[in-house]
Every structure is written in structure tokens, then in C-alpha cells.
Amino acid sequence: MENDDLMLTKTQRLVLGFLVLILVDVIWVSSSELTKYIYNNETFEKPFFCTYIKTSMFTLYLLGFLFWPPWKDSCSNPPNYIYLENDLDDDNYITEANCITNLSNPVYVPVKTPDREHSGTESDDSTVRSVRFNKLAEVRHMSESEATEALLARLSYQASLRASEMAKRAASRLPIARVAKIALIFCLLWFVANYTYQVALSETEAGIVNVLSSASSLFTLVLASIFPSNANDRFTLSKLVAVFLSITGIILVSCSDLTLESKLPFGAVLSLFSAFFYATYLVFLRRKVDHEEKIGIPLFFGFVGLFNLILLWPLFFFLHFSKLEVFEWPSREQMMLLLLNGLLGTVISEALWLWGCFLTSSLMATVAMSLTIPMTMLADVLLKEVPYPILFYTGTLPVLIAFLAVTVLSHYENWDPVFDLLQCAYHSFCKKSRIIRFKEVSSEQTEALIGINSEHEA
């Protein structure tokens, strides 16, 4: 995850991000259905407890400090990355003084010469004569920095560019203390987004929750336009049309199932809150960190889990004594399902989703959440045999079209086909008046030229 995408082109990164986001949608739909099963069949409706356990499981990523050598080395040794400087003058850089100071202390080793046995019959002319001044040879080692630069200098041009780019990004990687500080800033925002989502699941159907949570695409478009992190976050009319197309599908799907539950309005409000906090968390994190190599996604989520584990446990007392959520320890089967759901639906999927966001864009990552609509619908039909009207199926089509449109717009950053179409229509509408004015000016110029020529002839 951390090094493979460095060598990818923009198109390859987009395709990889597209596939990663689809995989995340599959995991999220499965997770939402499993959460609903825990709430209903296992009668363990504890949104805060479930969110706290699943979020705390992010600390599993911190085991990398025990088993992952780069993380272990970063705790004791500062990073030392070297890349070629393209503007450096080799004639002025390589001097005799630099060569001497960058070499190690001399080491004297015996000189090995091949021993030849003489039979005594060879003549003096046939023997190879050599002069040996000393039996010891002086050996000096080149410094590691010089050796690395020499290795990079022997690479081809394209290979040297890739190696230099990798070294630059590795050198710009944030230190562990900085990553922990960023995780502390965003951990509460992430927890609120997930907690409101879990409460919404306990109040209404998983399909409706996923549908309304997809409104985060509109929040992401607005926030990313105000606080852009790169050129992909630029506001365009085409993106706005795609988002409204997605919301249209969301409205159709919501209206088709509006009377299923009496508690739907409260669940819908919580779903929208979750969508807003998700968009806020994603946009500002991307503004804080422009590339995934800077932060290390597993390391970031490891600290998020650690801070949530330390800071949020007092809320158990508040929720218990206020009767909002009475504390109750789950059974063994419930705990196994909860841990499985946390591992797949939170620990793995959240890291993949954030990775897919860095590979593509913030808007594409949130619009991809809309793909959970047909997937959840299919899961409800196959697993629970829930009947949906034709309006529900019709509403999924605009959502799919919107996701594909945002994918294309993410590839062509400066392309705005809707604006270009409106501009062409405007020019076509004003074309006639422009032609008439041009002809009037031409006729005046023609008359003046004729007058001037006639005077010269006279």
C-alpha cells in the first residue's frame, strides 16, 4: 500500500482506486448487514459499545512497531534518504578535497598474488616478470551517501527519475510524533461519524441508512471547493450535476421505502449527520496530508484507535447512568460477531477506503459510497427477501451514472463538459448579432477605402 502506487501513472492510480473503492463497498454492505443481525437477532443493540470496540481495534496496526522493520527503525534512527540533484554541476562538485574527506580511514590488507610453481626447466624469457613495491594494499571505503549517489547515477534516465521521486516522497514522510498529532485531531471527528451511523442502523433499515449516508458527496463537493487540497477538488458544473444526479437517485430510493418504519425520520437525520462528519473528516485530512506516503495509513489509524481507546471510555458511565445506553457485556457469540465485524468492516475497510481516496479524489471516494445502494438492495432481496417497488430500482440508475461521471471527471481534472456545453449554446445564441455587427463595420471600412482610392486617382 505504501510503495506500490509510487510507480503507477495517474490512470493506473485511478483504476486501482476505482477497484479499491468497489471492494470497500462490498465490505461495508456486508458489515452493515452483520451489524443489523447483531442488533436484531442477537438482541445486542449497543451502538456506542460496538463503535468503541471496533474503533479500538485500530490499535492492531500499532503491532507494526514490533514486526515491521521501517517502523521499528524510525523510532531509533532518523530517516536518511538521498536523491539526485539535477541542477548540480559535476565539474564543481567533484574535487580532490571532497574525494579525500568523504573516504574512510585507510585499512591495509595483504596483497594476494597467485603462486606459480616452477619446474626449473622454464627459461628466463618465458617467465612473467612483475615489480611489487609493497606486500600491503591501502583500502579506503566510499561514504554511504557517495555510494548511493554513484548507484543512482548509473541508472537509466527514467529509472533515475522514479528512484529520485521515491526518495523525495520518502524523505517528506512525516515523523511519528506528527502522525500521532494528526490522528489526535481527527479521531473524535471519525468516531462521531461512525457512532451516528451505528445509531442510524439501530433505528432504520440498513438500505435506507446507506442511501442517506451517500449524501456525503454533496457535503464533500462543497467543502472540497472551499478548502481544496489539489486540482481535483476544483469546483465544476459537471461535478455539481453529477452530485445532484446522485441525490436524485437517493430521493427516489428514499421515497420508495419511506413508510417502512415509523422511526425513519430520526434515523435519516442521524444518517445525514454521519454523512456530513465523514465528508468533513475526509476533506480536511486530505488538505492536511496531500499524499498517502506522507502519513502511512495503517500508522495513522493505529493512533486513531489508541486515542479513542484512551479518551472515550468515560462516556460509558455517562450513557449508563443517563439510561441512553445501559452497559451490558455481550455474550461469547455476540463478541465473536462484533470482533469479526470490526476487523472486516472497520479495521480493513476504513484503511482501504482512505487509500482509495488518496488514489482518486475526495469526491470520488464519497460518491463511491452510493454504490452501496444497489449492493444493499441485492443483499436484502437475497438474504431477507425484502420486497422493493420499482421506484427503488429506478433510483439506483442515476447513482451509478453519477459515480461513473465523477470517475471520468477525476481523470480529466480541467474538463467541464457541462460548462463547455452551456458556453457553446451561449455563443450559438449570440452568433447572429455578432455577424450583423461585423458586416456593418466591414461596409464602413469598404466605403472609406474606396474614397481614399478615388482621391489618389484624382
From TrEMBL:
The keyword Membrane applies. GO terms for cellular component: membrane. Belongs to the SLC35F solute transporter family. Keywords: Membrane, Transmembrane, Transmembrane helix. PANTHER family: SOLUTE CARRIER FAMILY 35 MEMBER F5, SOLUTE CARRIER FAMILY 35, MEMBER F5. InterPro entries: EmrE-like. Its main location: membrane. It is a multi-pass membrane protein. It comes from Phyllotreta striolata. It is found in: Membrane. This is Solute carrier family 35 member F5.
